Amino acid sequence: xxxxxxxxxxxxxxxxxxxxxxxxxxxxxxxxxxxxxxxxxxxxxxxxxxxxxxxxxxxxxxxxxxxxxxxxxxxxxxxxxxxxxxxxxxxxxxxxxxxxxxxxxx
Length: 106
Known about the structure:
This protein is mainly alpha-helical. Helices cover about 80% and strands about 0% of the residues. It contains four helices and no strands. Helix 1 packs across helix 3 (about 55-75) and helix 3 runs antiparallel to helix 4 (about 85-105). The chain is flat, with a radius of gyration of 15 Å.
């Protein structure tokens, strides 16, 4: 269940990061509220996941999910660069997450 909590925390990480962009410096109410609520939720689920997963592993996986998700979102919705090297390096983060998951005994 701990890995599920980390995954959920990672999804909330993506949502609040994207919400931060839409909040325009916390000047727009709805995106700002979504950002704040999902910030709280990401930490709640991260803390639940870290009960049984080593801190460094859990944190790396959580931030990796956030990096990958926000990067993909930016490419699709904000017309950010899709150059091949960027995709290669994001893929390396994904491989690292998978490697950490399968080398951690929990």
